[in-house]
Amino acid sequence: MTAEPSSIHLEPSQPIAPDVLLPGDPGRAMALAQQLLAKPLMSNHSRGLWGYSGETREGMPLTIQSTGMGGPSAAIVLHELAELGVRRAIRVGTCAALEGSLELGELVVAEAALPGDGVSRALGQQGPVEPDPALHSSLERAAACRPVLIASTDLFHEYDEAPREGWIRAGAAVVEMECAPLFTLGRRLGVALACALIVSDVFAGAERVRIEPEALGRSVQRMGAAAAAALAF
Predict the structure, then answer these.
(1) pTM here?
(2) In this structure, is the dihedral angle defined by the CA atoms of residues 31, 36, 179 and 19, taken in order, positive or negative?
(3) Cα within 13 Å of Cα(149), Cβ side
(4) Which residues is 150 bridged to in the sheet?
């Protein structure tokens, strides 16, 4: 890897690898970097979007870059990473279950995303948007878990029963905030995208039940290992 030029929002101080993991949470980016990289070096701290670059213990260059919350922030990050040479990216995040059979801590991969977010609509996406077939296949094999249809939305706390019921009728098993915009933009930018998610929230009637932090940390480690393995195939 060689040093790359700076961008508007990301200000990389280390080389950016062509393969990237995209957690939303900066703290999760740090935890994944410590888990997956032999000698992680912070590559970005601009705007609180922590990023880390290095090599895995198997010698594969890898960057782990947080996107922040929601489609607009994720789209900015992906666009600038593409300009810096990124060619494959896997979103590694959390989601809320819409399907009663899903359990807290369960790992799923996105077979497609319903675009209920503003970024996807602004980019003209009308129906479900799919991940890159080859990268999705590698991720599904590495994660050894079920592929599901997901819904992407701009709201975390405020969405009510009406949109939730609509997502369920459309076949969505989980809801989150960044997958559809990343899939949609990735197609335009020539970046292969896939997505792995941990079920961090379930609904008991109208009540949201959240996973315990320690259990989430263990699940995130499993997700990170699967995503890195998918990029190594």
Answers:
(1) 0.94
(2) positive
(3) 13
(4) 113, 174
Contacts of 184 by beta carbon, 8 Å cutoff, 6+ apart:
115, 119, 120, 123, 125, 129
Q: 18 by DSSP, 3-state: which?
A: coil
Domains within the chain, CATH numbers bracketed: 19-232 (3.40.50.1580)
- What confidence tens digit (pLDDT) does each residue in 103-133 have? 999 999 999 999 999 999 999 999 999 999 9
Separation between Cα atoms, residue 56 and residue 167, nearest integer Å? 38
Work out the burial of residue 107: count CB atoms within 10 Å of its CB; fewer than 13 is exposed, 13-18 middle, 19 or more buried: middle
Residue 131 CB-density burial (10 A; 0-12 exposed, 13-18 middle, 19+ buried): buried
Residue 117: strand pairing partners: none
Contact 230, 142 (CB under 8 A): yes
> CA-CA distance, 136 to 109, in Å (whole number)?
8
* CA separation for the pair 85, 64 (Å, rounded): 14
Nearest alpha carbon to residue 78 among 181, 172, 165: 181
Q: Six-digit token pair at 178?
A: 């960044």
